[in-house]
Amino acid sequence: xxxxxxxxxxxxxxxxxxxxxxxxxxxxxxxxxxxxxxxxxxxxxxxxxxxxxxxxxxxxxxxxxxxxxxxxxxxxxxxxxxxxxxxxxxxxxxxxxxxxxxxxxxxxxxxxxxxxxxxxxxxxxxxxxxxxxxxxxxxxxxxxxxxxxxxxxxxxxxxxxxxxxxxxxxxxxxxxxxxxxxxxxxxxxxxxxxxxxxxxxxxxxxxxxxxxxxxxxxxx
Length: 220
Prior knowledge:
There is one protein chain. The protein is 11% helix and 39% strand. The protein is mainly β. The protein has two domains: 19-181, no CATH class; 183-220, no CATH class. The chain has a six-stranded mixed sheet with strand order 10-3-14-13-12-11. It has a four-stranded mixed sheet with strand order 1-2-6-7, with no helix packed on it. Strand 8 (103-111) and strand 9 (114-123) form a beta hairpin. Mean pLDDT is 65; it is low at 2-43, 52-56 and 182-220. Pfam families: gag_pre-integrs, Pol_BBD. InterPro entries: GAG-pre-integrase_dom, PolX-like_BBD.
């Protein structure tokens, strides 16, 4: 991949907790995204990402990242609208590998009975992590509550336009939060009987059994 000497630093003063707008290199286990502007080439941007090495490498899981500045995924089939990226943008990972941003578009995530539309998502072919930016979620009238329940750290995503109703839940994995949601391919598993709930529990063991039953009833 590309060896970017500025990897891990940003000129963006919107990054919270960083003095003078500079990113300090975080521990390898810390997951974050930082946006970079390449002053030598106007209009070009570099997005860096470093992931928890204990986090499973999968193309089917979304992670909620408080340090992320943009949503991004390598799953082109998830987009219902997609346009070419106007600039020569790249994503640089912690291992110095680099991926081109090929497009920007919108994705619909099925959350219970409702679809949550995620806009302005970067399409990055080859990227094996799907990342949701907390900042972008807040821009879309959503509220995120981080809490600990019986020793389990969770993130509850609420829709303020619907009376702060819970629309999604994420479980703590390492230093990131893994989104619990129903994949389109798995919606056929949703049923009202207990047998189906047990099947869900085997497939999504990180979600509490009670939460699965609630999700099936659509009372999120």
